[in-house]
Design goal:
alpha/beta, 182 residues, five-stranded mixed beta sheet, Nucleotidyltransferase, domain 5, 5 helices
Length: 182
């Protein structure tokens, strides 16, 4: 016997995508209204920046302050990042790790769940091709969000792509959990 339970209307879910960098951190905040649909609405997208001429600790402090402001204005249910890829210089990787650490600590300090996806997972979820180039990803992000002529930075586009990937994964997980078991 199949029993259905009504728990009231589902509230909306906010997913914050982050694309960390030591100079610029892209962000994209999506909201999904309750219900079974998979449509996300763009809340805000942009780039947090720290001036290049500042020492790294001060740049990171500016990025963290910008993220704290964003989290205060639009508290997300979860934050998501692309896992770092290999192939960059060790110096660049160290600086990126410091930026990621500062941002992750800021998000975790507010009790927000954090998830990570590989670049191939993000590309596959957004375009259907795990080897898609940046322009293909950007085109699909605009299409999926119903936005034309968006003047986002590449950082913001990457952040939106990882947020869309997370949204798709959550939807698939929910469908799998709700499927009747035999």
């Amino acid at each position: 016997m199949l029993r259905l339970r009504y728990n009231g209307p589902r509230r909306s879910m906010r997913i914050l995508g982050l694309d960390p960098g030591s100079l610029h951190t892209g962000f994209g905040l999506l909201e999904k209204a309750g219900g079974s649909g998979s449509t996300f609405r763009l809340v805000e997208a942009g780039r947090l920046s720290g001036p290049r001429d500042l020492p790294l600790p001060e740049r990171l402090a500016r990025l963290v302050a910008g993220l704290q402001d964003l989290l205060a204005r639009h508290p997300p249910d979860l934050a998501v990042l692309e896992s770092p890829f290999h192939g960059v210089s060790s110096r660049s990787l160290i600086v990126l790790a410091q930026a990621r650490g500062a941002l992750l600590a800021t998000v975790a300090g507010r009790g927000i769940e954090i998830r990570e996806y590989s670049p191939a997972e993000v590309k596959s979820a957004v375009t259907g091709n795990g080897r898609a180039d940046k322009e293909q990803v950007a085109r699909m992000v605009r299409l999926l969000l119903g936005v034309t002529g968006a003047g986002w930075s590449a950082d913001a586009t990457d952040a939106l792509a990882v947020a869309l990937c997370c949204g798709q994964r959550l939807r698939l997980d929910r469908l799998r959990d709700e499927a009747p078991r035999r």
